[in-house]
């Protein structure tokens, strides 16, 4: 526990001044980097995944605050963009995976599973159900995709294509909450119950998706919920960052180090392709470029939504695009890949 206390204290102590200097999502990036450092130095800190899961609840709550009737109507009218961007991203990932398989010893099945932005744990489980895959190559590819995405996209979103002041004002305007007395208790019980139900029915990322759904429904059908305190959100990001650092094992990189430039380039190519998709979405639907980019980016619903909150992007739009892709990749992609690669 001593090392864990040092890790968390150092994370906050370093993130605070970097946040003041304008670094994107420092309360998530700094803990991630420190967790990697602790692992490489053999400094055990007895981390438990359930702590990250509980930290996702306030993040999900804060994301759910962004939904109201107007945003839901806008999302419903932009359904074709949500579906199209998902299919385009997956198609680009598979195309580059084919290129990797032709220029490295990594076979096509491993390249596809390693290159699709479906989450490290999900893709590892999938690799166990498909014959002739290389779990080590898949883990390295997914880790490099995760690290390059989480490091690159926040800087691009914050410094290169951040929304204008007018776009931020239009997005963050909200009706003050009128919660009082026992209504707070009802809200807490509803969020916890929604989280428990999401876990029970095995929704993807249930500890975040459950609160998002519950808070969004309360916002739409009852009244605006009170804001989540900033200090709670920052602490939650620290827990998420430490969990992300847990999955990065630098030692694995040496096993396929000769092919790292191509693997890294695959992430950068996909990010560049997402930028093209974002320009199309921005032109087609009038999103700010930052909102469209974070909606299309392969960084994960939690990470991209956190970045969006930090720069004033349209969180409801980002969640809608990321959630559809998450559900599609969790349910449709594994079945399709298993059918294709296990045919013979």
Word description of this protein:
- It is built from 16 helices and no strands.
- The chain is globular and about 65 Å long.
- The model has no long low-confidence stretch (mean pLDDT 80).
Topology summary:
Layout: H1 2-20, H2 26-40, H3 49-64, H4 69-77, H5 79-103, H6 108-115, H7 120-127, H8 135-160, H9 165-172, H10 182-200, H11 206-221, H12 230-246, H13 260-285, H14 289-296, H15 301-311, H16 315-341
Helix pairs in contact: 1-2, 2-12, 3-11, 3-12, 3-15, 5-6, 5-13, 5-16, 6-8, 7-8, 8-13, 8-15, 10-11, 13-14, 14-15, 14-16, 15-16
How would you describe this structure in keywords?
344 residues; 16 helices; 75% helix; 0% strand; globular
Give a brief outline of the structure.
With 344 residues, this protein is an all-alpha fold.
- Helix count from the secondary structure assignment: 16
Mean pLDDT: 80
Element order, helices and strands? HHHHHHHHHHHHHHHH
Strand content: under 5%
How many strands, which pairing sense, and closed or not: the largest β-sheet?
A: none
Question: Based on CA inertia axes, which overall geometry fits?
Answer: globular
Q: Report the span from N to C terminus.
A: 50 Å
Stretches where pLDDT is under 50 for at least 5 consecutive residues are: none
Q: What percent of the residues sit in helical stretches (DSSP H or I)?
A: over 70%
User: Over all CA atoms, what is the radius of gyration?
Assistant: 20 Å
Broad structural category = mainly alpha
Number of strands: 0
